[in-house]
Each structure stands twice: as C-alpha cells, then as structure tokens.
Amino acid sequence: MKIFIRFYVLLFLVFILNGCGEGIAEMNYPKTKKLDLVENIFGQTIEDPYRWLEDFTSTESKEWVEQQNILTDRFLSNPYQQKIKKELEEIWVSDQISVPYKKGNKTFYFSNDGKKQQSVFMMKGCDDCEAQVLLDPNQFSDDGTISLGDVSVSPDGKKVAYSISDGGSDWRTWKVMDIETKEDLVDKIEWSKFSYATWESDSSGFYYQKYEKPNEALADVNRSPQLYFHRLSDSQKEDKLIYQDEQNPDRSWSISVPEEGSYRVLSIGEGTDERNLVYIQFEKDTDFIPVINEFEATYNFLGGVKNALWFYTTSDAPRGKVVSLRIAEDGQYTWNEVIGESNPISAVSIIGKKIIINYLKDTITDIKFFDLAGNYLSDLDFPNSGSINGFYGNIKDNTAYFEFTNYTSPEEVFEIDLGTLSHEPYWKSDIPGFNADEYLSELHFYSSSDGTQIPIHISNKKGLKIDRDTPVLLYGYGGFNISILPNFSKTFYMWIKSGGVLAVANLRGGSEYGDEWHEDGMLLNKQNVFDDFTSAAKYLHEEGIGSSETTVSLGRSNGGLLVAATLLQNPDLFKVAIPQVGVLDMLRFHKFTIGWAWTSDYGEPDEEEDFINLLSYSPYHNIKKDVCYPTTLITTSSRDDRVVPAHSYKFAAKLQELQSCDNPILLRVESRAGHGAGTSKDKQIDEIADIFGYALSVIKGN
User: Fold this and answer.
1) The pTM is what?
2) Which of 594, 698, 569, 690 is nearest to 635 (CA)?
C-alpha cells in the first residue's frame, strides 16, 4: 500500500511468532485522543469519544490515519500477500469489455487489456470497422486516479457527453467530445452528482442533475438537487432550470426522452427508496403533469413511441410487472397491464420492438421475450446457468448484445438478432491460466434463525479437500433492494485459486425474491440480515466446510455494516472479519453527504422507534469490554464521499480501545480513492493482495 509517511517514528511493538500468524504478545495501537462527549437521546446515554475523527480532512485526523497505516503495513507484508499480488498481476493482463450498445451503425463499449489503470471507451464506426479509442482516462492523470465516470452518446451518434471523477469522489465534471474530430467542445458542467446525461432527441443538448457548490466537498450534506438542461456551446450559467422542489429537499430527479413524440418523463424519488413519482411533460416547455403522484410503488420508464410509454412497476406486484401508459390526442391517458407478475424481475429492456425480461429463479437468470402488446414469444435459448445482462438499445434496433457469467465462468458476450432471436459469440474473456473445468460452483439452501430458506452459492477448486481446516470466505450484502447474483470476479477467483472456498449468501434485504425479500431485511427487520449471515456461517461449519478458526467474513458498504455487526454479535464465529467502506455509526450516518438518503432502508435516527432499533445493532455503539473479538481488518478510502471514512475511523478507534485479547484490530486507509468506482488497477490489486494475504496468514500462519 502506497502511503505518505511524515518524518516521525511510531513506537511500535515486538513481534513474537506463533501458530496463528498474528505474532503479537501485546498490541500497542497508535495513541488516540478521547473526548468526554456524552449525550442523552430518547432516554439513552450515548458516548461518542471519537467524534473528532468525523473531521476526517483535518491535519489531526490525517496524522492519526498515517500512524494507523504504518501499524497496518507491518502486518500486511507476508509471503501470502506477495504471492497473491504476483498472481493477480499475471491474471489481470487479459482483455475485458463491457456489454456493447449501438447508436445507428456505430457500436460503443469500454475495454481494457489488463495493463491499463483505467478502461478506455471504444467505438466501432461500422460492424466491420476496426475499433478506435474515443476516451482514454489513462491520459487524465499519471497515477490513474482520475477516472472516467458515465458516458452518454447523443442520439445522432456525433457527440459524447462524459463525466470525470477526481480521486474516486462522487462529484462529477461533465464534458462533451465531438466523435468525428475527437476534440473536446467548450462545454463544461460542474458540481453534478448521482446523475446521467440524458440527451434531447435532436442532440441539441442534455439534461443533468446538480447540487449547490459545497463548502467541504467530501463531507457536506447533499440536498436539494436541481434538474437542468444544457444546450451545447452554452456556458453552465446559461443552463435552463427544468425542475426543483425547495419544499422537499430530499427528492432527486431523473428525466427520460422517448424515441418518438414530444413527451418528457420525469421520475421523482426520495433517497434510496425504490418507490417514485412520475410526471409527464406532454409538450415542450409546458408544465409537468403528475400521472403517479403517490410514493406507492416503483415505476421505471422503459421506452416509448408517439402514443404509448412502457414502465416496469411493482404496483400490486411485489415481484414486478410491465404496464403501458396510453396517451390519446386530447392528452388523456390510461394505464394498462402488459405483462403480469410471475417470477421476480431483475431487469427489463424494450429493444427491437420486443420486451425482454430478465426473470430470477433462485438467483439464476431466465430470459423471456414478448412483443410490445405483451404476448409471449420465446425463451432465450441458452445452455448455461448463471447471470445474463445487457440488451441495451432502442425500439428500432435490429441487433443487441448480452453478457453471460457466473462464479466460475468469466464473461462472454453474445450478439443477438432481434428478428430471429438467434445469437452467436461476440467476445470471450481469456484469463491467463484459468480453466473452468477445474472449478465447481453449486447452489445450496440453508435455514436462517427464523426458518427462512436462504440461497448460498459455494465455489471451489474441484478435488479440493474440504474440512474444518479449509479457509472459507463468506461474502454478503443484504440491503437496498440489490441482488447479489452469480458473477465472475478476479477478486473471488483469487481466493478460490489460493485453495479457499467462496460462499456468497443471498441475504434478505436484497431483491432476489422481490419487494418482500427486501422488506424482510430493512428498517425494523434489519436484524434478519445479520441473522441470515450468521446462519450461513453456522451452516457451512455444520456441513464441514471450514470452521470458526478458518472463516473470513467480507462485505463492502452496507456489507461492511453487515460484517461489523455480525462480528460483534458473534465474536467466536469468525477468525477474520473485513468490513470495507462500511456504514458503522448508525446514529449519525444521515449527517454526511448523501447518508440521509439511506433512511429509507435503515430508518430515521431522529425518530425514537428507529433510533432504538438502530442503536441495537450500530457497530460503533455495540463494542463491549472484556470480549475477545476476531482479528479485524477495517478498510476505507480517504476520499470516500459516499460512506465517509469517519465511520471506519471511529469504529477502529473504539474497537482498538476495547479489544480484550491480542487479535489485531487494523485500519487500512487508501489515498486517492473513493467508495470503489474508478479505482485504478494497481490500487485494486494492492487491496486484494493485502486483505487476502493477511487473512490467509492469520488462518494458516506465516
């Protein structure tokens, strides 16, 4: 890990080798200042001695982080880490592309040969043309830490709007490139966040969401966004305000432009709640008219023609369905069900005059084709089991692309003829030294504490002797209606390749089984998620797959909360816990950047019932004295402005203070990185090698 080290020496500890590889007689952590800060909230006494670390950009906090990194680095360098890093550098050198999409005769996609820090944005001018580079973010900075965010090609295929992120921040600066000349135009949009560039149908400009310029870019709360239209060649100060709602600062906006007609579809959401309002602008420069005016269900716009708009919705259908909004010449409209509810819907596309639905059957993709009236046409004729993604494009397109993958199958891209629905290989990932026949992945089910059956995917090398001594990596997320579906990952592959078992549990809180699965793991039901994860570890151990002496728990963001909460509730269940960029102070998460938006899943800390529930599992507030917690490696990034690093700083400080045994509590802080998106190749490799190398050294010994 590359860090800046000031000119002082940290008084450290003496290593004593032992069989666990932890090698510590007594941990001497960096000295951490404590505040005498006590609050009474809803009758509860709340101590917050490390609140000063919430000012994570201060000189004092940065010096504390440097000392933590010095300590952590002494543990992370070991033979396992060095071997994994070398092997990662070897397997990383392989071609990778995103699922392509077309604009007219041009095809666009991201590509990386594994040697570049960042993927480049490519274009093929025709089916037989040689691909050319349009945008190369590796030219943005010397170290690859300025990344390319979102890209949006204009309907005429002549311009591309693209956003740039500096050091992993969620803040985006938008620019526009002329595709033919490959030169940037004068356009520049600043202080945009959580936004796409949605082009007008005539390619004259695009819509985007922005916030007021913050005083502290990485920490200030982000509220009251505004929707603007930017006309090409105008300065940002001339952009037209399309929509705002000063009375509802927690609302956010996205706008869609159908391929035909003058309609504009405005989606209005609150936080991360999937339910939304839908407003329609029937004629340009007229008011938006509400067609869905209550937060009752999800309505995702899919596509439209002159007299019809299609939506995915969960209205009276918790597993999802497709409806249409039929618009008469006098502006009157009617809702009609097009495709009724059946299995949970993961994604829907309208392309090539067909409705393509990605259904889930116990986390496995099942693709079905329908015509625009909702009549069933056929299933996708595909032999393998796993996840299928893609089918991007427009109603009039003749071809599209989709990608297949699972835990032991690297990505393959196929081109599909939307007339015949036949498909053929387009591109296949080739990982050096990888042979799919040498690996196995199976879907199992286990009972959670309340008897709910939970899917879990277990993957490993064929022929691996699996017993109580086998290293096990248990991964989960469980929140925000996000499904964790089978997907090949170089990170997970590295663990399996190193002789471990990978177990991915599909916890409640996700959308694997529709809205009910999500609701069973949110708000006052959040403990179900932790129980599901705990039960997964117990199930594995009962099946003879690892033990509490060989199991590592891993999760990111909301998954970091999962790992931290379960290590505190079950300190004897895991050998190593790795909470990454986690939400760890559940009483103050809403006070930073976009954290307030998560109250839809977590609850409102300023309301008593939610506060008491949050306090019951908040990692920062549930660390106890006289408990031996497992070896813990907490990871975060100094420029994470989504889940600010203060969560990890405060949790690490308190866990170090109260740890009652010699199991190390370590904090790894990455510089020039954010919540994850846009992280450079080298930083990704370093992080994977560090966390897996350290975990294996603890389990197996140096």
Assistant:
1) 0.93
2) 690
Q: Is 302 helix (H, G, I), strand (E, B) or coil?
A: strand
- Among candidates 9, 18, 16, which has minimal Cα distance to 71? 9
Collapsed DSSP state (helix, strand, coil) of residue 516: helix
Catalytic choice (457, 638, 675, 697): 675
675 part of the active site: yes
List 557, 637, 648, 697, catalytic entry: 557
- Residue 625 belongs to domain spanning: 38-90+433-700
Q: What does the block give as tokens for 333?
A: 């409209």
In a domain? residue 114:
no
Three-state SS string over 461-512 comes to: ECCCCCCCCCCEEEECCCCCCCCCCCCCCHHHHHHHHCCCEEEEECCECECC
Could you tell me where the DSSP H helices lie in 77-182?
79-92
Domain count for the chain: 1
Tell me, yes or no, if 230 is annotated catalytic. Answer: no
Q: What are phi and psi of 55, to 5 degrees?
A: -85, 70
Question: At residue 368, what is the residue type?
Answer: K
pLDDT in tens, 20-79: 333 333 689 999 999 999 999 999 999 999 999 999 999 999 999 999 999 999 999 999
At residue 340, what is the residue type? G
Domain CATH code at residue 494:
3.40.50.1820
CA distance to 101, 119, 179, 534, per residue, from 428 (Å): 17, 17, 27, 37
pLDDT one-digit tens code per residue, 129-186 = 999 999 999 999 888 888 999 999 999 999 999 999 988 899 999 999 999 999 999 9
